[in-house]
């Protein structure tokens, strides 16, 4: 998708440091562990994991590997908050919404980009970037979920304290987490920064259609049309398109002024704006700085107009910290089960 750039982000940096610890540990166990861990990762056929991202929230990911390739040959990433998944495999590159059965063919094969955390390459890259482990502590501790005894690697860095759990039998990573965030801006600068990865499972028996779009799925051609569902957007009712454009603009303004990020998220296509957590932090910081500020105030708007599949409303508003701003907001209308909805969303 247009606004996604790289998925390696914090997970790469974290694993760079973590594996360098094993490599430079002067004990026999350290030298043995890194060699065996790399070999074990190289032999992975597939991996499934859950993760919590700093900006995008919870995801699940499934990857399949070929023995002669470092990058995964098949990927399916689930956005659990939106019933969305991105699929990249020999069958093509797609975004699929399990709630509506809509899918869209992506314009590029995401496997050839850094959009995903790549399990195999992370370990090889870590060796190339290995540095001294003077900020590292290696110990034994139990996995928080299974209570199984693990090799634990703690790394202290300027941006945060990181912990890795390594299975002492398989020598594969089973969990990692950012325990303490020291530099929030570091993680916010990343397109995708991983707060925690867990429930990691290797070499499962996968269904044949694990990396395919269902045969009865309906193809759509705008990115926003994959996302929309009866669970999001504003019901239009008897309003005209022009009236609905004004109404949804007012509702989004009210949601921001009330710090109601759930309402804001339901009325806006998520890739067109800052993540709700960051936006909420920015709004709260502004309120603390300017407690007498009344928030966003709509001053005027022009008659909404249609251009292609989108409607647009040009308006002028007073925004905290920016003064008077004139913007054009796009609105997309759609229908489910005879009910019409609209959502603020930018075209591809």
Query: What's the quaternary structure here?
Result: single chain
How far from one another are the termini?
A: 8 Å
What's the SSE pattern?
A: HHEEEEEEHEEEEHEEHEHHHEEEEE
Helix/strand structural class: alpha+beta
Biggest sheet details: 12 strands, mixed
Low-confidence sequence ranges:
1-32, 126-132
Tell me the radius of gyration. 23 Å
Q: Judging from the principal axes of the Cα atoms, what is the shape?
A: flat
How many domains comprise the coordinates? Answer: 2
* Mean pLDDT level: 79
Spatial order of the strands in the main sheet? Answer: 7-8-9-10-11-1-2-3-4-5-6-12
Could you name the CATH topology of the largest domain? outer membrane lipoprotein receptor (LolB), chain A
Strand content bin:
25-35%
| CATH architecture type of the largest domain | Clam
CATH class of the largest domain: Mainly Beta
What do these coordinates show?
- This protein has 348 residues and is α+β, with helices and mostly antiparallel strands.
- The protein has two domains: 9-202, Clam (outer membrane lipoprotein receptor (LolB), chain A); 231-344, Nuclear Transport Factor 2, Chain: A.
- It has eight helices and 18 strands.
- It has helices spanning 9-24, 28-42, 119-128, 184-189, 223-227, 241-257, 261-267, 276-289, and strands spanning 46-53, 57-64, 74-79, 84-89, 92-97, 102-105, 136-142, 149-157, 160-166, 173-181, 194-202, 218-219, 234-235, 297-301, 305-307, 310-319, 323-336, 339-344.
- A hairpin with a 6-residue loop joins strand 7 (136-142) and strand 8.
- The radius of gyration is 23 Å and the shape is flat.
- The chain starts with 8 loop residues before the first helix and ends with a strand.
